[in-house]
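Example record for the data management plan.
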Amino acid sequence: MKIVAVLVLGLGCGVGWGQFDLEDSHSTASLRGVDAVGAGVAWVSGSNGTVLRTEDGGYLWQTCAMPKGAEKLDFRGVQAFDAKTAVVMSSGKGTLSKIYRTTDGCATWTLVFEDPDEDGFFDTIRKVTGRQMYVLGDPVKGKFAMFYSPDQGANWYIADDPGLDAVKDAGAFAASNSALASVGNVLMFGTGATPGEPARVYRTVPHCPELPGAGAPCSVTWVPAAVPMAGGSAAAGVFSVAGRTTLSMAGNMTMLGVAVGGNYEKPDSGAGTAAYTTDGGGHWTLAAAGPSGYRSAVAYSKETNQWIAVGPGGVDLSKDDGKHWTPLSGEAATGWNALSLPFVVGAKGKIGKLRDGVLK
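Corresponding structural encoding:
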């Protein structure tokens, strides 16, 4: 009842909670995974085996049955296909990184995969088509780990693609389940920086047989590019990537991308918090006016042609594909970890829904 009273006050005065409707999650977990499927369906995941689900646009949030043995697991990522089928990923060293799947609206779960490497660590899970999924993990034996599912997460295989070689001590971030993105036919993921080395974004490029018609399918190669964002330590770099495609007058399709991050140990520093690419990820440019602090997640709104970045310290918008960012004000614009429009999630069970018109 106390939460309801706060919400009514916020709606009545229009101050503080102006951009977001805060929702009762019935949870105190740290929430870092969210996936809005559409038609009012969204899934959320977090610490201590927490999975939440709504079927009515966030008016009511259901606490899902906990996967067996998941009481101490940190579900950093969730991806859903509809109100019944979803996959959650936990992050942790070795077998603490697990993947569970439900097909009955989270009444029951099946353990479908766990990290085969004792030194591995899952960072992000991402659906890329109506059936295909990928999981990105920290480097093992000098290469970023990548796993693939062709059947909505029911079965998993090693994606041993070339080009996944990592700089010594580099890794990805499991802060918002958005270090890995799918944009058109391109996959890309961001990494942290290391002392003496910049952060990077890896992207896929097609690698096809030399002789057309030979019958062999095209494979992909991962190609890294340096990103001029915050660096100098393992706490800094690219935390989240997103993109959109654009079609030229000549009919050529190009991916425009945005990366956000910074240094989570210096959350109020605005140095190196965002960068953008206009050539499909080959080259990245530091934002002329970036977010004023560390941001853990970014997304693109096709309806309004804007980008939104969120983090513990605030929310920022960009209307020019990541070159300039403007902050949202208000108390409810702080405390977030991850987003999947229109939902944002954060610490202590905090769930917000971006109000209609905020991005317009």
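Summary line stored alongside the record: The chain has one domain: 27-326.
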